Amino acid sequence: MLTYTPQAERQQAVTPPQSEKPWFLLLLCVLWLLPGLVGHDPWKPAENQSVAVIARMLQGGDWGVPLLAGQPYLGFSPLYYWCAALLGKTLAWTGIALHDLARIVTGIWMALALWGVGLAGRELHGRRQGRVAVVLLVGSVGLLQWGHHASPAVLGLTAFSWQMYALALARRRPLHAGALLGATWLVLLLGATWGEALLAMACALVLPVFPAWRRSGYLAALLAAFVVSLPLGLLWPLYLQQHAPAVFADWLVSHSLGIYGGLGALRFFHQPGYLYSIAAWFAFPVLPIAGWALWQVRRNLGDSRWLLPLVQLLAVVAWLIFAGRPSDSQALLFLVPLAVLAAGGVDDLRRGAASSLFWFGTTTFAAIAVALWGCWLALMLGWPDGLAGQLRQLSPSYVPGMGIGTLFAVGLSVAWVRVLMGKRPFGRRAATSWACGLTLVWGLLVGLWQPWLDASKSYREVGQGLQEAVTGKTGCIELMQMGSAQQGGIAYFSGLDVRGPDAAGANACPLVLVQSGIADATRGKLLWQGARPGESQERFFLYRRP
Predict the structure, then answer these.
(1) 246 with 253: CB under 8 angstroms?
(2) What is the rounded distance in angstroms from the CA atom of residue 453 to the CA atom of residue 73?
(3) I want to staple 341 with a disulfide (CB 3.0 to 4.6 A). Which of 48, 290, 393, 486 is the partner?
(4) Domain boundary residue among 394, 424, 457?
(5) 3-state secondary structure at position 511
(6) Among positive and negative, which fits the CA dihedral 81, 84, 87, 88?
């Protein structure tokens, strides 16, 4: 995997050469995947909401109706929350925090996504290229946050990875592919939105236009997929309709199609330039490598190994361009076809392009690593005074210290230097070096800086301070003028009966918690105020209503 192989030799190879190191790929995936899954409180943009929904389920809430601060939370179907709640219930005896268990669920789904991309790359381009597809996906900058974030967004990535494999497999084993395809659609119906499910189905239904999929076996695969997915995928909407008709109506009208709104409130073309504004960094380096691969085979794009990922890529691009409210989490779907396309062309990169990628990655990640180590040493030693003082001011509740994270950072740095001492940077070697560098930076950020970041990003002190302030008082608390992340963090860490402005009975709550810059005496008697450590803008004020 670490050496360059010309395309002709790659196609003729029957058995893997002895120089291959499959253990290296596994180690790279583990070192990329595990850091950041445990050891810190929920962070923005989506963890506070996810963990609050999961906690409400475990506290006796209706598992069929996701609730955030007493309000239906319908941005995603509940499969991710169910998985995390089941794991939390099963492993409650271990004492592992619920938010850590939720991220472990993300790690499991992320591992499945990497597996699916690898299988798709192998099926389309050959066995060794499947490994390259995994390396390229791991090296994608935009995946770094969402691949370690407690959010249902990872389910879409996983489903589209396996859909790519199922569609590639359909020409060879149609019934097996049909079952896999149905499972991916089921994940989208129960874990994402109808919008993503319809996008996936559209990608599959358009393929018979091309001769490679215009056969009876593929039609059998499609039929099997619908039989597997639709009956089970409709169970949750039917449950909502029967047990919470008002929530079902809200979901169907406003949320069922995800970034396109709902059937009764469609949203189109709100930010047509969004994808272009993030693609250069979000999909680096798979985007330029995939572009080069397509240019190299531009006369053979009808070949199924290029046609399938290209169809899915164009569908996802159109999906994001015409969307009503695109986001980074939805752009994850963009990475899957790019990784598979790039895997087929990475070995054909010109020497200059491969060397440029290698040296750009090496210098960039080396500079970032030196900066992370230097700032961390300044924080530990208290010198130089100016830098150390600024870092302490940004996270005033952080207590400097060393632990297993420091040892991990040292080991990872040494391992990265060892990787750089390998052979010359052709094709996959350059891609592997990039992925290793990104893994190094992520590992250093987690190993050295996670406690410092957590001390300023967590809502734990706000929630616990609010809990102490209402000791001995009865009644619910209405949350006002705050976003869903703040509502989720306060609900999770306080454990109180807090209700968002749209929750039932919120207006009747005797207490109200307001996010504001300054206190407002017209709201009633001020009982408490608080904020996250180091936060000067986002403050919370608790009042008793007059």
Answers:
(1) no
(2) 27
(3) 290
(4) 457
(5) strand
(6) negative
Query: Does one domain contain both 331 and 186?
Result: yes
Domain containing residue 332: 104-347
Residue 524 DSSP label: -
> Is the peptide bond preceding residue 66 cis, with omega within 30 degrees of 0?
no
Q: How many CB atoms lie within 10 A of CB 436?
A: 26
Say how far apart CA 167 and CA 174 lie, in whole Å. Answer: 9
In the block, tokens 């099963």 appear at 90
C-alpha to C-alpha distance for 377 and 85, rounded to whole angstroms:
39
Which residues neighbour 419 within 8 Å (Cβ) at sequence distance 6 or greater? 432, 433, 436
Q: Phi, psi at residue 514, to the nearest 5°?
A: -120, 135
Q: Are residues 179 and 150 in the same domain?
A: yes
Task: Give the 3-state secondary structure of residue 311.
Answer: helix
Same domain for 226 and 328, yes or no, is yes
Compute CA distances 463 → 58, 134, 498, whole Å. Answer: 19, 40, 11
How far is Cα 258 from Cα 289, in angstroms, rounded to an integer? 30
User: Residue 273: which residues within 8 A CB-CB, separation 6 or more?
Assistant: none
Which stretches of 322-426 are DSSP H helices?
A: 328-345, 351-381, 385-394, 404-420
Q: Which of 31, 6, 107, 128 is nearest to 418 (CA)?
A: 31
Quote the CA–CA distance of 313 and 8 in Å, as a whole number: 27
Q: Going by DSSP bridges, is the β-strand pair 261-262/265-266 parallel, antiparallel, or unpaired?
A: antiparallel
Q: Of the residues 457, 477, 492, which one is the last residue of a structural domain?
A: 457
Cα end-to-end span (Å), the chain: 70
- Total domains in the chain come to 3
> CA angle, corner 331, sides to 330 and 335, nearest 5?
130
Q: Are 51 and 102 in contact (CB under 8 A)?
A: yes
* Helix/strand/coil for 38: coil
**From CA 80, how far away is CA 72, in angstroms rounded?**
16
* CB-count exposure of residue 212 (10 Å: 0-12, 13-18, 19+): middle
Number of other CB atoms surrounding residue 89 within 10 Å: 12
**Number of Cα atoms under 13 Å in the Cβ half of residue 343:** 35
Indicate if 486 and 451 belong to the same structural domain. no
Which amino acid is present at 328? Answer: D
